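Protein fold
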Amino acid sequence: MYDLLSGMRILEGSAFVAAPLGGMTLAQLGADVIRFDDINGGLDHERWPLTSDGHSLYWAGMNKGKRSILVDVRSEEGRELLTAIATAPGPDAGMFLTNLPARGWSSYDNLKTRRNDMIMVALTGARDGAPHVDYTVNAMTGFPMVTGPTNQDGPVNNVLPAWDIGAGLTISTSLLAAERRRSRTGEGSLIKLSLLDVALWTTANLGYVGEASVTGNDRQRLGNQIFGTFGQTFKTRDGQWIMLCMFTSRHVKAVKELMGSDGSFTQIETERGIRLEDEASRFEARAEIEKIVTAWVGARNYKEVAAALEKAGALWSGYQSFRQSLGDPYLYADNPMFEAISQPNLDGAAFPIPGAPMWFEGLKRLSPAPAPRFGEHTDEVLADVLGLESGAIGLLHDKKIVKGPSST
């Protein structure tokens, strides 16, 4: 996508979401990210969702722009190859990110013996090394107990892996910070990061920890309402759903002018002695506001509602499924972040894939790169990173230490 990190080389040993996302973020900024997987089968290359012929759409999504190599990680010779790639010389090399167990050959202490200025980001489930994934971390944070309908009994999990996403972006930020430190001081870094700490950091920053600590109360379940202001879902006459929010006085004014011709909003303010331009007042009066908006939206078809809200300058959007959103030109077809790219690991199937979401003014934005076939770059990496001749690479194949491209 960009050449900003061109020349930077990073070895990635990963599985699931956080670490692959961290590597992909760097790859889309121009870094050479080399992902290794075990020759006997990677953890991710057959992960759901799959195409009808069994190819992983997950792999295609999380590994765009990377190089893929397959190595027998269980063998001493295979581990030596990975160690050599991770610690290869050069000012832009010597970087390793992983969420796999960092011990033996992949421990920082071992890598540092080969390259003193080694940079390594090691993600664990918890800071003590206990295994965790997004769902088990989320269970501890408190969010599942405030997610879901107001009458829900028991936890509701979020289908979005929020903590994995946060950790992935923190991985990329941490590695770049360490690389900047090394460029200034010559010092390497071991960055330890845990999925749980990322979740706790976020939860505390959003005020949930302070609220429970200071007030002694748990946040109430609100369903689709928004805490501390006004926001709710509404159903149109023809059965479609919208989300309407009021975050600022301008949003309040738009809704008042559109739906308050009968004086209903003025009545709320008079009876309660409040101004709906005040955030807390909107939240306190949310039931009365919801009643007015429900009646107005429910009396109109979606197209009429959409046109009126847009004209008024309200803060809103319509709900749609993933499949419906794919047909929305505003989201995909007319968005230059996306291009329909043929995916080698999907037998050439093409569909919209995104490049980096940031736009650098004045810099050339390149087409997004597809994900590699599983093991596509094994020989290439052995040759250009380690300088191995074709005969030596062939011998490694014969000994089943490495493997080339696979159709899966």
In short: The domain at 9-203+331-403 is CATH 3.40.50.10540 (Rossmann fold). Residues 12 and 229 are 43 Å apart (CA to CA). The chain has two domains: 9-203+331-403, 241-318. DSSP finds 16 helices and twelve strands in the chain.
